[in-house]
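User: quick one, sequence for these C-alpha cells?
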C-alpha cells in the first residue's frame, strides 16, 4: 500500500463522519488512516474459553459462560431500582444485574433458553454477579462469525459517550483493512526478518487487530515491539555516531602540570580502581578530537567529586576554563569549599556563582570569566544565565544531572561557538537497560566501587511507637561524638501540613535534646539562603549535633562525621529518595545507621520499599526494584525522553527485546553507517520517513 494512501484523512473512511473524526482526533489523536492503523489494542479478551459457574474464581476478570436465566426480579433500593436475573448452568448459579435500560431488558430477555453471556464477574454478597453482561442466544452465537481474541482498544469517557465504542473502533479497523486490502509496505530488512524469524509487517498488523489465536498474537506483538525498539535504538545510536563524526571537540592532549601536581602532591587518598578507570575513560574522550558527552554514574559516596575535579584540572592544563553546576545552593557551596581546599596553593583561580551572589561580586566574576582570569566556575542554575560568558569554556560538568532538564543542559552547549565537553554525573543509579533508552546517545561510565574502609550502613525499620528507644540510641551516638540527621518529607501537595510536621518534630527534638548539652540545626526550603548556609555551616563544623531538615539535604551534602540518618514518615518517600538520603551517612570510618520511621499503617508497596532498603545498600538493585514498582513513568529523566510514548513495547517487561534491538541497531550501523548496502535499503527508507515525520510510528507502509 502506498504511503500517501495511508495519509488519507480519517473522514474519508467509511463510517467516519466529521463529528466522529473530530472526536477521534481530540481523544485519540487519530487524524489519518495511518493513525488508526497504529492504534494498538491495550489488551485482548480470550473468547476461545468458556467457563462454568463452578469454575469461577474471585480473581477472574472477563469470563464467558453458557447458561439460562431462570428468574428475573426488580429490587428496590434507596439508591434506585435494579434488575436482577438468576443465571444457572449445571454447576451452580449466579446473578446478572442491570442498573440501566431495565425496561427493555425485562421485555426482551427470554427465560429458560440458553444464552452465552460475557462480562466482568464480581464477588458480591457471597455470590458471583455480573453487571450489564453482553448477551447472545446460544443459537445465534453458534451461527455467528467466531471472534476468538477480542481486541480492547484504548478508550475515554468522551469516546464512550459519543457512541465510539470498542465495537465501533473494531469495525473501523475492519473497514481500513478492506480499503487497503491489508497490504502494507515492509519496514524491516529481509535479513532482520530472517535472523529473528519475524512475521511480515502486513501479517503483524492484521494479527494485532484481528488475532486468530494466542500464538499469532504473540508473533505480531513481538514483531511490532521489536520494530519500535529497534528504530528508537537506531535513532539514538546514529545520532551518537554522527555527533562523534561531526562535532569536533577541543583536544585536551596535555596531561599537564596541574593535573600531575595534584595527583602527586595534593590527592588526599589513593583513588579507587573504579575512579582510576573512569578517569581513563574520560581522558580517552577528551583526547579523541570529538566532543565528549558522557554520563558518570556512581552510587552516593562513591567519590565522583574528585573525578570531576581532576578532569577540570586537565581542562585548565590545556588552557581551557571549566564549570561545575550543582542543583542546589548547599551543594554548590559545598563543592566550592571542598574544591578550594583541595586546590589550595596550586594557583588555580576558582569562583562561586549562585542566586545569592551579590551583584558587585557577580560583575567581577563576569569580567574575570570573559578575560580568562578565572579557571573554574562553580555554581547553580545561575551559571546558565546569558550574562555568564566565558573566554573559552572547554568542559562543563553537571552534578546530580537528573535535577536538570534537557533544555537546561543544552544551554551549556551554547556557551561557546563550539560546544564544550560535557560530563553529567548522577548518583541515581539507572538500571542499565533503561539507561540505554534514556541516555542511549551518551557514553556511560560507572564507578562501581566505594572507597575502602567504609562500613556498610545498617538500616532498620522502626514504628513511631518506638520513638523513645530511637531517641535513646541517638543520645548514645552523640555521646560517641557522632552527628545525626533527622529528615522530614516535604511533598508539594501537602506542603503546609508537612511544614507543620517538621516544626512539631523539631520542637519535640528540642524538648528531648535540651540545651546546653545538645545543639540543633534546622534547614528547610522556606528559610533565607543565608540562614540555611549558616545552619548548614554549623553542622558541617560539628557545632551542632542534630540536623533537622526537609529533603533539601538529599543531594550530595557531605558530613563524614554524621553517622545516623533518621527518616521520618519514611513510607512517604520513594525508593530512590530513601537511598539518596541514606547516602548522607556512611561517609566516614564509623559504623553508620539509617532508621526508617513509619506509622503502623503501610501499603504493600510501602512495605516492599522499606524491606528493600533494609535488605540492600546496592543502588542498582534498588533502582531495579523501583523500576518494577513504579514503572518507568516516575523515574527521573523518563518524562523527557520518548520512552513513555511507546505504543506497544514496555521498557521494563520487554527488556530482552530491547537488548536484541540494540544489538542489531549497533551491528547494522557499524557495518553500514550510510545504509548503502542493498540489504539495508528498507531500513534506510523507513528511517528517512521517521526522521521526516519526527515520529517512530508515522512511517509505516
Ligand atoms: P559522591 O559520589 O556521592 O559525590 P563524594 O565525591 O562526595 O561522593 O565522595 C564522598 C566522600 O568520599 C568524600 O568525603 C570524599 O573525600 C571521599 N572519597 C572519595 N574518593 C575516595 C577515595 N578513593 N578514598 C577515600 N575517600 C574517598
Ligand atoms: Mg556528589
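Assistant:
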Amino acid at each position: 500500500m502506498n504511503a500517501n494512501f495511508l495519509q488519507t484523512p480519517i473522514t474519508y473512511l467509511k463510517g467516519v463522519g466529521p463529528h466522529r473524526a473530530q472526536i477521534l482526533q481530540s481523544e485519540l489523536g487519530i487524524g489519518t488512516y495511518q493513525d488508526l492503523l497504529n492504534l494498538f489494542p491495550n489488551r485482548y479478551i480470550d473468547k476461545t474459553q468458556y467457563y462454568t459457574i463452578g469454575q469461577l474464581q474471585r480473581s477472574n476478570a472477563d469470563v464467558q459462560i453458557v447458561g439460562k436465566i431462570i428468574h428475573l426480579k426488580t429490587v428496590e433500593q434507596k439508591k434506585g431500582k435494579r434488575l436482577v436475573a438468576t443465571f444457572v448452568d449445571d454447576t451452580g448459579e449466579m446473578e446478572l444485574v442491570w442498573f440501566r435500560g431495565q425496561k427493555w431488558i425485562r421485555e426482551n430477555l427470554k427465560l429458560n433458553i440458553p444464552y452465552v453471556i460475557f462480562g466482568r464477574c464480581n464477588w458480591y454478597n457471597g455470590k458471583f454477579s455480573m453487571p450489564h453482561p453482553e448477551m447472545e442466544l446460544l443459537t445465534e452465537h453458534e451461527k455467528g462469525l467466531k471472534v476468538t481474541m477480542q481486541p480492547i482498544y484504548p478508550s475515554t469517557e468522551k469516546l464512550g459517550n459519543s457512541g465510539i465504542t470498542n465495537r465501533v473502533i473494531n469495525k473501523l479497523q475492519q473497514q481500513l483493512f478492506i480499503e487497503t486490502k491489508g497490504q502494507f509496505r515492509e519496514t524491516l530488512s529481509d535479513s532482520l526478518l530472517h535472523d529473528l524469524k519475524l512475521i511480515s509487517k502486513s501479517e503483524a498488523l492484521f494479527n494485532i487487530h484481528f488475532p486468530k489465536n494466542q500464538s499469532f498474537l504473540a508473533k505480531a506483538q513481538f514483531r511490532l515491539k521489536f520494530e519500535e525498539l529497534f528504530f528508537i535504538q537506531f535513532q539514538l545510536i546514529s545520532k551518537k555516531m554522527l555527533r562523534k563524526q561531526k562535532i569536533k571537540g577541543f583536544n585536551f592532549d596535555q596531561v599537564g602540570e596541574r593535573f600531575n601536581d595534584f595527583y602527586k602532591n595534593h590527592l588526599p587518598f589513593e583513588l579507587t580502581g573504579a575512579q582510576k578507570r573512569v578517569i581513563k575513560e574520560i581522558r580517552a574522550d577528551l583526547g579523541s578530537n570529538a566532543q565528549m558527552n558522557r554520563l558518570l554514574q556512581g552510587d552516593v559516596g562513591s567519590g565522583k567529586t574528585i573525578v570531576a575535579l581532576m578532569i577540570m584540572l586537565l581542562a585548565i592544563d590545556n588552557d581551557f576554563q571549566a564549570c561545575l553546576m550543582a542543583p542546589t545552593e548547599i551543594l554548590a557551596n559545598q563543592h566550592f569549599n571542598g574544591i578550594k581546599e583541595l586546590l589550595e596553593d596550586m594557583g588555580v583561580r576558582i569562583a562561586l556563582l549562585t542566586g545569592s551572589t551579590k551583584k558587585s561580586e557577580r560583575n567581577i566574576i563576569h569580567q574575570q570569566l570573559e578575560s580568562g582570569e578565572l579557571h573554574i566556575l562553580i555554581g547553580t542554575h545561575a551559571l546558565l544565565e546569558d550574562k555568564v560568558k566565558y573566554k573559552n569554556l572547554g568542559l562543563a560538568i553537571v552534578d546530580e544531572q537528573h535535577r536538570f532538564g534537557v533544555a537546561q543542559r543544552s544551554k551549556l552547549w551554547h556557551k561557546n561557538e563550539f560546544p564544550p565537553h560535557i560530563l553529567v554525573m548522577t548518583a541515581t543509579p539507572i538500571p542499565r537497560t533503561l539507561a540505554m533508552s534514556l541516555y542511549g546517545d551518551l557514553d556511560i561510565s560507572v564507578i562501581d566501587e566505594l572507597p575502602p574502609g567504609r562500613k556498610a550502613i545498617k538500616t532498620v525499620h522502626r514504628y513511631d511507637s518506638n520513638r523513645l528507644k530511637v531517641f535513646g540510641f541517638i543520645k548514645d551516638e552523640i555521646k560517641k561524638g557522632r552527628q545525626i540527621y533527622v529528615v522530614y518529607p516535604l511533598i508539594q501537595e501537602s506542603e503546609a501540613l508537612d511544614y507543620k510536621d517538621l516544626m512539631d518534630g523539631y520542637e519535640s527534638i528540642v524538648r528531648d535534646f535540651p540545651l546546653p548539652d545538645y545543639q540543633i540545626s534546622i534547614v528547610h526550603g522556606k528559610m533565607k539562603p543565608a540562614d540555611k548556609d549558616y545552619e548548614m555551616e554549623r553542622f558541617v563544623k560539628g557545632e551542632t549535633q542534630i540536623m533537622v531538615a526537609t529533603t533539601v539535604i538529599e543531594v550530595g551534602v557531605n558530613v563524614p562525621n554524621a553517622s545516623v540518618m533518621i527518616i521520618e514518615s519514611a513510607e512517604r518517600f520513594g525508593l530512590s529518595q530513601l537511598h539518596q538520603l541514606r547516602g548522607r551517612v556512611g561517609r566516614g570510618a564509623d559504623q553508620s545507621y539509617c532508621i526508617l520511621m513509619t506509622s503502623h499503617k503501610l501499603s504493600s508497596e510501602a512495605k516492599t520499599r522499606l524491606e528493600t532498603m533494609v535488605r540492600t545498600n546496592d543502588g542498582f538493585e534498588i533502582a531495579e526494584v523501583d523500576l518494577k514498582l513504579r514503572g518507568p513513568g516516575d523515574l527521573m529523566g523518563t518524562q523527557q525522553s520518548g520512552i513513555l510514548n511507546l505504543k506497544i513495547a514496555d521498557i521494563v517487561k520487554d527488556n530482552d527485546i530491547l537488548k536484541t534491538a540494540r544489538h542489531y541497531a549497533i551491528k547494522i550501523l557499524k557495518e553500514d553507517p550510510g545504509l548503502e548496502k542493498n540489504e539495508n535499503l528498507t531500513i534506510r527508507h523507513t528511517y528517512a520517513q521517521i526522521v521526516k515525520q519526527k515520529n517512530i510510528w508515522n512511517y509505516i507502509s
